[in-house]
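Q: Two folds, back to back.
A: First:
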Amino acid sequence: GRQNGAVAAHTGVGQIRGHRILGRTRRSGLDLEPDLGRPVSGIEIVNCSLKNTQLLPLTLGGNGNISDINIHDNEFGGNEVSIKNNNPLTTKFQDIRFARNLHTGNVGPALRFDNVIRLVAADNFFSRFPEATENTPAIRVKDCTDVFIRRNKSEGSMLCVGPQGIVTGTIGAPVGQPG
């Protein structure tokens, strides 16, 4: 398969707790990827270590709705955590919370949101490789509505948050910055 673990359809209450990637995987870590239009909702991802992946440590994408996802107190490494709705005319990604996570070692954005409704990104720490472009933000937000982004800290980048397209809501200053 393409990933170490995946959820293709789920509604209700679910939890992925303590998932660890001990050796280097050939592909991705975890995917929440609706298949055949079925939704993925009500999942908590907590206390996981997704640092040894060749591709993305965590991906939310696919061909169905994703909602009520709580991602907190995890360790990520390498490439970005990707929460991208590539089909915003037919699917909705909404109510996504990303909090108190650690992400180390990325050159590009560590966290990417595209076409998400009601997202929270708070109290995260991002540490990037020295060769990272200083102007590349740790968090990239594109075409998202009702965002709340506060108290995130980024080392190795001058920008913590980089909005693109239409972004509405609250984007606060990173930790240690005025505002």
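A: Second:
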Amino acid sequence: PLARLSASIRRMWYNDIIGDPVSFSTGLTVSAIPSHTLRYPSMFHTSNIELGVHCSIGKERSSRNTWLYRSWASLEYICGNKGRGRAVGRLAVEGKIKENHRTELFSDIQCGLGGKALNDEAFSGYRSLRYRTVDVGVKYTYVIDIWGRLSVIYSHRAYAQYAPNHVNTWSIEYMLPFSL
């Protein structure tokens, strides 16, 4: 099922490709989340509408006209129309196999900022929990020229507090970027 529908806007302040020491960007993301996904223990959404404020820093290594690999880190604070917010971080190294084929190794860290611990009552979502998770994974992406990117992602939950532990997740992602 559809887990969320999101739209982001980003601004790049520094760009290492044009001579800055690193790339640095900030942005906003608005997400709409279907109600049925708020009760899934494997999805950390806290409300039907979420707003995220994020920043990323990274460095790209290139050869001639193309990049070979890049490493980056991002941090995001997400709040919704219900419950407490959460902090999400990602560390990643991405490499290009061929012009349209990419791979990525990543680690995702999430911290729920709620005040409650998980108890024996029926699970009703993460909006008030203080959970912690660390996922590690791999992502393969095929770039479809101007039509976007199609990715297959595998992740494994290496650590969890007040969340499901040792979860293995496969997902498919389609991203259609455009500029204004």
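Q: And?
A: The CA atoms of residues 37 and 76 lie 21 Å apart.
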